């Protein structure tokens, strides 16, 4: 099986290197010339929770040759359709596209290339780019995990084959409810990534402040309500289960229950920096905010769920991207917290 990892950034570099080391025919594809040159000349270097240097094949999209059986799509959502268009010459109508982005990208990719060609995936580990060709794994190797599933819930031979391949990149599991998994991860990202990006801090730093914890609790509340209204069943992920019973609250006792659960969740990735904040720190003018917290706002409007905290995170991050605000903790003053009865 010929594999192309389209989007050889922080996570794409690591997954491509690990699949290559396991003996799979894998090519890392990226539009960044410096990244491709470093990977081709020096190999893929992984630091942090895993230290390795793996010789890999790397290519710019325009230089890519051959036909690939599966595309591991690891660009960010705002770039993914453009990235896929650039490698269409290297696909046939049998090429499978595995969507591994944050948020819910499957609808967009299925609309363009056909639902039957799409497998959904969710990655539960983090990384950051240090320099061209070098990526730091920020999650313990034992906690690396990817869920994959067919959009119709079936368990197919191709899905099991890709599960075997993905096992080289950490733990991998097939699910018959990939949308439940994806939405659970989306809600998780709105809580820890959205808030920490709006405040310019790590996940752990956000958990140490009473107001930012309240903010995360209200965002969990909104996400749980949206999932319930959509008829989606959350999946338990390392103890994180965003049901309304767990995360919707009307009083301080309910809030404290939510806070305890969120602190435990954040303890697994205490020092991580959201990819959206990495984009901000890199001086980029776009990030995935519309596909993360903005997705909850959009779906909340469809189902009559009020989402003031997700909306405020979207507003703050967009103002940061425009240069109207700085990514700093003082942005917490922009949130309006309701009083909770005893």
Per-chain topology:
Layout: E1 2-6, H1 10-21, E2 25-29, H2 33-42, E3 44-48, E4 52-54, E5 57-59, E6 70-73, H3 77-86, E7 96-99, H4 106-113, E8 118-123, E9 127-131, E10 134-137, E11 145-150, H5 157-166, E12 171-174, H6 178-199, H7 203-207, H8 210-229, H9 244-247, H10 252-267, H11 275-281, H12 293-303, H13 308-321
Parallel strand pairs: 1-2, 1-6, 2-5, 3-10, 6-7, 7-8, 11-12
Antiparallel strand pairs: 3-4, 8-11, 9-10
Helix pairs in contact: 6-8, 6-11, 6-13, 8-10, 8-12, 12-13
Tell me what the structure shows.
This protein has 342 residues and is α/β, with parallel strands linked by helices. It has 2 domains: 2-176, Rossmann fold (3-Layer(aba) Sandwich), CATH 3.40.50; 180-334, N-(1-d-carboxylethyl)-l-norvaline Dehydrogenase, domain 2. It is 44% helix and 16% strand. Strand 11, helix 5 (157-166) and strand 12 (171-174) form a beta-alpha-beta unit. The chain is globular. The N and C termini lie far apart (60 Å). The mean pLDDT is 95.
